[in-house]
């Protein structure tokens, strides 16, 4: 029987975390192991979580004193297991029924050139797309129920083929927060694999605004830092790197995030040696095939370079956190 490791990161929100674990345990048709990594919950919540997890022999709980960040926590959870596939489920999400993981495995087994699939993410208890989790260029209302190839998956719910995950050494945990899915996806694609948005697999997401990091602070700082680091790591052409960095800083300055933009950029510069050293790591170098795949997924096919540049300038005029909502 196919083995699957379902990984869940927890940080307080005890009842939601327990519900996510319970939802994972209902999945049928595969051999399951649930791995929970706690990122520093309050002692009283952590004690209750320990007691809950002890009831189930196939649930492992790892407790961190300090928050390792999203990529660090996911790596820790994934490397605790050895299943054929790795599933990540947000601790405020649940599968809509007991067949969802089996559906995901069926897709991955049928198409061996898939490295990862992203699940359909609905607002919990509804049939409406969770727009806060939709980061694809396609319109969510038009494409939410349609499968398509893409250049990344969404973190709230996805499945990764372990053999490829191990091949590229998982996530880059230095990102800590933001762009971790894009970074891993790029490495998977560079290894010759595809990524598919798969609405056949559905989860409900309890959107928790109070637990999301505000754009007017550390979130924007991480965005600026990680964007620059990723551009260097994946050898974005110098002119495009400069233009992208300039537009990112312009957007931050225009929104009044001058200090956060500056700090994020300086932190990105500080990561230059690490970014350059990573050029030799598995999955970092692009290939003609990976470039062709990325181009095939682009919504800019047939659009002139000048039009693309104008569109980037237009996006730079939108305040942080608003662009995604306006594009949906």
Description:
Belongs to the glycosyltransferase 2 family. InterPro entries: Glyco_trans_2-like, Nucleotide-diphossugar_trans. Keywords: Glycosyltransferase, Transferase. Residues 12-167 form the Glycosyltransferase 2-like domain. One of its GO terms (molecular function) is glycosyltransferase activity. There is one protein chain. It is globular and about 55 Å long. By secondary structure, it is an alpha/beta fold. The longest helix has 19 residues, at 215-233. The chain has helices at 14-25, 43-53, 69-80, 100-110, 140-143, 162-167, 180-190, 215-233, 238-254, 258-270, 272-277, 288-297, 305-316, 323-326, and strands at 3-10, 31-38, 59-63, 85-89, 93-95, 114-123, 148-150, 157-161, 194-205. The termini are far apart. β2 (31-38), α2 and β3 (59-63) form a beta-alpha-beta unit. The model is unreliable at 323-328 (pLDDT under 50). The chain folds into 2 domains: 3-211, Spore Coat Polysaccharide Biosynthesis Protein SpsA, Chain A (Alpha-Beta Complex), CATH 3.90.550.10; 215-326, no CATH class. α8 runs antiparallel to α9 (238-254). Strands 1, 2, 3, 4, 5, 6, 7, 8 and 9 form a 9-stranded mixed sheet that branches. It contains 14 helices and 9 strands. Helix content is 45%, strand content 18%.
Q: What are the secondary-structure elements, in order, as H or E?
A: EHEHEHEEHEHEEHHEHHHHHHH
Let me know the largest β-sheet: 9 strands, mixed
Q: What structural class results from the helix and strand content?
A: alpha/beta
Regions with little confidence, pLDDT below 50 for 5+ residues = 323-328
- Strand % is 15-25%
The top level CATH class name of the largest domain: Alpha Beta
Distance between the termini: 40 Å
Mean pLDDT: 93
| Rg value | 19 Å
**Number of DSSP E strands:** 9
Query: Can you tell me the CATH topology of the largest domain?
Result: Spore Coat Polysaccharide Biosynthesis Protein SpsA, Chain A
Task: Tell me the overall shape.
Answer: globular
User: For the record, what is the CATH homologous superfamily label of the largest domain?
Assistant: Spore Coat Polysaccharide Biosynthesis Protein SpsA, Chain A
So how many helices?
A: 14
How much helix, percentage-wise, in residues?
40-55%
CATH architecture of the largest domain: Alpha-Beta Complex
The tally of structural domains comes to 2
């Amino acid at each position: 029987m196919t083995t699957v490791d379902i990984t869940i990161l927890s940080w307080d929100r005890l009842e939601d975390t327990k519900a996510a674990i319970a939802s994972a345990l209902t999945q049928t048709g595969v051999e399951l192991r649930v791995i929970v990594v706690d990122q520093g919950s309050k002692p009283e919540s952590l004690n209750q979580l320990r007691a809950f997890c002890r009831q189930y022999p196939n649930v492992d709980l790892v407790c961190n004193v300090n928050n390792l960040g999203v990529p660090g926590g996911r790596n820790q959870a994934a490397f605790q297991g050895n299943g054929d596939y790795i599933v990540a489920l947000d601790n405020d999400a649940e599968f809509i029924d007991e067949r969802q993981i089996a559906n995901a495995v069926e897709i991955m087994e049928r198409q061996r050139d898939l490295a990862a699939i992203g699940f359909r993410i609905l607002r919990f208890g509804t049939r409406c797309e969770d727009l806060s989790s939709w980061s694809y260029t396609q319109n969510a209302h038009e494409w939410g129920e349609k499968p398509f190839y893409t250049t990344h998956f969404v973190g709230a719910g996805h499945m990764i083929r372990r053999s490829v995950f191990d091949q590229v050494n998982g996530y880059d945990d230095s990102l800590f927060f933001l762009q971790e899915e894009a970074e891993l996806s790029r490495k998977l694609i560079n290894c010759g694999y595809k990524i598919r948005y798969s609405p056949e697999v559905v989860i409900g997401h309890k959107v928790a605004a109070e637990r999301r990091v505000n754009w007017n602070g550390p979130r924007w700082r991480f965005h600026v830092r990680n964007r620059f680091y990723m551009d260097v790591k994946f050898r974005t052409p110098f002119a495009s790197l400069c233009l992208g960095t300039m537009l990112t800083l312009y957007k931050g300055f225009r929104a009044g995030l001058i200090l956060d933009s500056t700090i994020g950029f300086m932190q990105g510069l500080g990561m230059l040696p690490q970014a350059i050293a990573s050029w030799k790591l598995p999955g970092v170098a692009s290939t003609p095939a990976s470039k062709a795949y990325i181009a095939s997924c682009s919504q800019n096919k047939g659009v002139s370079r000048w039009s693309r540049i104008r569109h980037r300038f237009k996006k730079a005029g939108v305040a942080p956190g608003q662009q995604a909502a306006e594009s949906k």
